[in-house]
Amino acid sequence: MARRVGEVLVSRETIARMVETVGARISRDYQGREVLLVCVLKGACVFLSDLMRHLDVPVKIDFMSVSSYGAGTETTGTVRILRDLDTDIAGKHVIVVEDIVDTGLTLRYLKEMLSTRHPASIAVCAAFDKPARRKVAVEVEYVGMEIPDAFIVGYGLDLDGRYRNLPDVRVMTDDDGQGGTP
Ligand code: 5GP
Question: What CATH code is carried by the domain that includes residue 95?
Fold first, then answer.
């Protein structure tokens, strides 16, 4: 069935307030420390660029790219590193910046893998969270906003590489009007 971009679930104004709130929390929690923001490409790039400008602690950034989904919308459970960090994270205060937590498989893998590199601390900051979809337990220290079970696009999130540029978060719907992650 054909899918199309549907209604706005989270407006750009609400997203802006969410980023401000999360940024303030992180700034408070990391006072006196430098943080290394690890952006999980490609979906988190928009959130990273907003979030880093709301932090008033010293910040460095790095990028990694993993594949969790193929061309569809369902996670495969297998996480592959497509691009690793440039930075040695040993002794650093790492915050993994994610676009969305769904089953939790990607984050659990990333957190465990990065922990073996001996960071001083490691936390996760996700713009969006779909707790109803969780398959594995993973602690997400900073969640921008919980959302219902729907496949969303915009604000960095894509479907087959498209729609990342949409400033609002929108729900993908089937032509019969049904939403939800297929
Ligand atoms: P997880 O491993 O938690 O199932 O999946 C995490 C990744 O799946 C996210 O980083 C994101 O790339 C993708 N993902 C999960 N839910 C959605 C969604 O609703 N929309 C989009 N565009 N991607 C999603």
Answer: 3.40.50.2020
- Per-residue pLDDT of 57-106, as tens digits, reads 999 999 999 987 554 555 666 788 999 999 999 999 999 999 999 999 99
Tally of domains within the chain:
1
Note whether residue 19 is domain-resident.
yes
Identify whether 160 is a catalytic site residue: no
Q: What is the 3-state secondary structure (H, E, C) of 18-80?
A: HHHHHHHHHHHHCCCCCEEEEEEECCCHHHHHHHHCCCCCCEEEEEEEEEEECCCCCEEEEEE
Residues lining ligand 1, judged by CB closer than 6 Å? 43, 68-69, 75, 98-107, 151-153, 157-159
Query: Which ligand 1 atom minimizes the distance to the CA of 150?
Result: 19
Model pTM score: 0.92
